[in-house]
Amino acid sequence: MRKYIVLFVSLFIMALGAHFLVLSMYIQSKKNDFLQLHNKSAIKSFEIVGSNFSRLSESIFNTAINKPYVLEKMIKAYGTQDEKNSARSELYEELFDEYTYLRGLGIVQLHFQLRNSESFLRFENPEKYGDNLTYTRKSVEWTNANQTKTEGFEEGVFYNGFRYIFPLIKIDGTKKEHLGSVEFTFSPYAFINDLINYQDIKAEFIVSSNDDTKKNIVTPTELRYTESPFDGFMYEKSIKKELNNNIKKIEIEKITKSDSSRASRDIFKGDVFSIPSGDSFSVFTFIPIKNSVSKKVVSAIILQENSDEIKELDNQFFLFLFSGYGVILMAILYIYREVNSRVKFQNISKKTQKILDAQEAIVVILDRAGVISVNRKFLNFFGCSSLSDFKAKNRCICERFEQNDKFFHIGKVKNDGFWIDALSELSDREHIVSMKDKNNKFHSFAIFINSIDNSYIVSFSDISETMREHFSLEQKAMHDSLTNAYNREYFQENINFIIEESCKKELHVGVVMFDIDYFKNVNDTYGHSVGDFVLKYLVWSVGNVIRSEDLLIRWGGEEFLLIIQTKSIEELILITQKIRETIEGEDFKEVKQITCSFGVTLHMDNEDISNSIKRADDALYEAKESGRNRVVSKV
Q1: Is 180 left (phi over 0), alpha (psi -120 to 50) or beta?
Q2: Helix axis angle, 528-545 relative to 569-585, nearest 10°?
Q3: Mutual orientation of helices 308-337 and 2-60 as an angle, nearest 10°?
Q4: Helix, strand or coil for residue 273?
Q5: Distance between CA atoms of 513 and 560, rounded to whole angstroms?
Q6: What is the pLDDT of residue 341?
Q7: What is the pTM of this model?
Q8: Orientation angle between helical segments 528-545 and 519-526, nearest 10 degrees
Q9: CB pairs under 8 A, 24+ apart, for 397-406?
Q10: What residues contact 263, with CB distance under 8 A and at least 6 apart?
Q11: What are φ and ψ of residue 567, in 5° steps?
Q12: What strands, in cross-sheet order, belong to the sheet with 508-516?
């Protein structure tokens, strides 16, 4: 008997060790999957903000800078010294109000340079000019050498920031004259503030202490920078002060020393990465930023976000660890008592049930025949008094999975197979389902499966908040940031599907191109903020007229595209006339009334959609040429 006791004790210890090792690897894998998803969201947000700033700078350049009177001043700068000084003063006086407006958008530097990269006019410091930027500002040198726009982060003698540098070129017929360049610099604070978009996220900004630019700064390094806990990086005092005053102060002390050392090395690799805090309540995301010309990592943005998911995974680890220990102990004891008898999940002890009931996740024990046991969380979620009550209404829990292709559901199981087999063939990140609770509210769950012989312990961990944030980011990527109309990316990804659906319904795809009449006068008279209001109100007004299945896309500037399923060109014209009349009758506040011109056509079978759009655009041109505020069709 003693020999068997020693044998079973040895098996028990080995099982405990194996359970601990496998569970540790599994939980770590789930943490890594979560952090990878978190990193992708951060990358997407960073790209969206960068794209927004790029479009903003492009708009400012085209509407305020790339004008004949500015180019004439730049030509004058190459005259005598008196003419050069006069051109600088006139340019400063001409654009000062515009510069004041740009400061409110987060631009800290509006800087003109001559084609030899000599500083011509700094609006933030007009007395400082004439210095050669060839060696300190490679982006300026590159822009003037290649006569091409440069954008991205770059260090500077006076400012570090996200810079958008445009060549200034006068075009006279076929003749082009390169006159120099102009630069818009956005403060890192403005970029970070837009990045977190008023979420409950803390932020910090660090700059490499190894770049050559700091050797040329006017004020001593210690007056502009201070030490950070990351080797090779410093805080820029002014940015740190702004962040601490306006965004909750980041809790760097929550990062362990070993993680700080690792982060210092990993930042220079150039990839976004995340580190959980020592207490697992926060996730620190590091976004390395590269110099726009050298492509070397020269700074980084650090985001701190509360993360219940990491803490929940730690909690799950201990819950599964001890519940697993309990199951192993009972299994060993049962085997010891009844050698060669099969463990029956039906005979799970009250102690095990209490362990299951104590868990925050929904837990289901089942085999191929059906559900064997559930915990209290399961019954509360579905509003059932017992497992029998649930089985009376459902043959399988998989029947409760929402039929949504963003999640796993029974429709993805082939040939009436077992849903756990189908789920096991997918990657861990696809182990997500959506189910309605007793109040008909949808919840998203991550599924964790442990198999014992021919039975399974399946836990459903609620990740609804994480999925809502994920879907929110997807929606932002498909909508115009100003008007919330769909953007071109959404159109490109969905137009073929829309055409196919229209064919199934035996309907035509109507293409309507329209824009605002004399919109430039609105911006010139009332300013861009009023122009932005007009665009947003227009989208709201049109959205109230069209049907839910119709698509409104911001095509560019004040130009919009409507995709409407219709029976005929006559019906399409009537719908468009109603939209035109609605816009004409709206009160646009300061502007009072605006009108729009429309070009309509039908998409032909087997025709490239770009041809349909071109035809609608030609009709729009005819509408404008024939007097505006009208609908012109072209088939």
Answers
A1: left
A2: 130
A3: 160
A4: strand
A5: 6
A6: 38
A7: 0.50
A8: 140
A9: 397/364, 397/366, 397/371, 400/435, 400/436, 401/433, 401/434, 401/435, 402/433, 402/434, 402/435, 402/436, 402/442, 404/434, 406/434, 406/471
A10: 230, 255, 273, 275, 284, 286
A11: -85, -30
A12: 551-556, 559-566, 508-516, 596-602, 631-633
Burial of 547 (0-12, 13-18, 19+ CB in 10 A): exposed
Confidence of residue 481 (pLDDT cuts 50, 70, 90): confident
Q: How is residue 468 annotated by DSSP?
A: H
C-alpha torsion sign, points 591, 593, 597, 602:
positive
Using CA atoms, how far residue 162 sits from 139, 191, 273, 291, in Å, is 11, 8, 21, 10
Q: What is the DSSP string of 221-245?
A: HHHHEEE-SSTTEEEEHHHHHHHHH
Strand locations in 385-441 (E): 432-436
85-100: pLDDT as tens digits: 999 999 999 999 999 9
Contact 561, 511 (CB under 8 A): yes
The identity of residue 294, as a single letter, is: S
- Reduce the DSSP state of residue 380 to 3 states and report it: helix
Mean pLDDT for the stretch of residues 576-594: 94
